[in-house]
Amino acid sequence: MTILGEMRTLDGDRGVIRVEDIYDTDIDDLWQACTDPERLSRWIANVSGELTVGGDIQASFTSTWTGSGRIEVCDPPHHLLLTMEPGTEDETQIEGWLSAEGDRTRLTVEERGLRLPQLRLHGAGWQAHLEDLHRSMVGKPPAWKARWDELTPAYQVAPIT
């Protein structure tokens, strides 16, 4: 089992998970998969709300997390930054960067501000989400829960730097 995620501490209470993968599609198609509500629902979350910079959104993830967010940056097709649960003690930021690599595209996702006791569970979760993105690109349904169950033991013993 390959660990794709890197986990780091930010301070004594919070940390960051960073995952990345390369997809067999061009940057514009992958951007659409990461920003279009219909395509997002195929692999990670049902998203609604004001889908513009500064807009408030609601998201229900396949991981069962449901909550609010705000779009901070949207620079198609390269950069997206969301603040989740803004203004609360559970506030985190999810940031995504896309870069073309020939006819393929690299997606890097980082979630910052996670509580350290939950970091490993989120690491497994983000890896499962990125794998579901691959699945959605070939018309397969998400397998988040089963994959999260498989990945969690490896993330539980993975280092946090």
Summarize the structure in words:
The longest helix is centred in the last third of the chain and has 19 residues, at 119-137. By secondary structure, this protein is α+β, with helices and mostly antiparallel strands. Strands 1-2-8-7-6-5-4-3 form an eight-stranded antiparallel β-sheet. It has helices at 27-35, 37-40, 119-137, 144-157; strands at 6-9, 14-23, 45-49, 56-61, 66-75, 79-84, 92-101, 104-115. It has four helices and eight strands; from the N terminus they run ββααββββββαα. Helix 3 crosses helix 4. The chain has a single domain (6-156), classed as 2-Layer Sandwich (Alpha-D-Glucose-1,6-Bisphosphate, Chain A, domain 4), CATH 3.30.530.20.
How would the blueprint of this fold be written?
Blueprint: E1 6-9, E2 14-23, H1 27-35, H2 37-40, E3 45-49, E4 56-61, E5 66-75, E6 79-84, E7 92-101, E8 104-115, H3 119-137, H4 144-157
Antiparallel strand pairs: 1-2, 2-8, 3-4, 4-5, 5-6, 6-7, 7-8
Helix pairs in contact: 3-4
Provide the descriptors you would attach to this structure in a database record.
161 residues; alpha+beta; Alpha-D-Glucose-1,6-Bisphosphate, Chain A, domain 4; 4 helices
The biggest beta sheet reads: 8 strands, antiparallel
Specify the CATH homologous superfamily: START domain
Distance between the termini: 20 Å
How many β-strand stretches?
A: 8
Structural class: alpha+beta
Q: How many domains comprise the coordinates?
A: 1
User: What is the CATH architecture term?
Assistant: 2-Layer Sandwich
List the secondary-structure elements in sequence, H or E.
EEHHEEEEEEHH
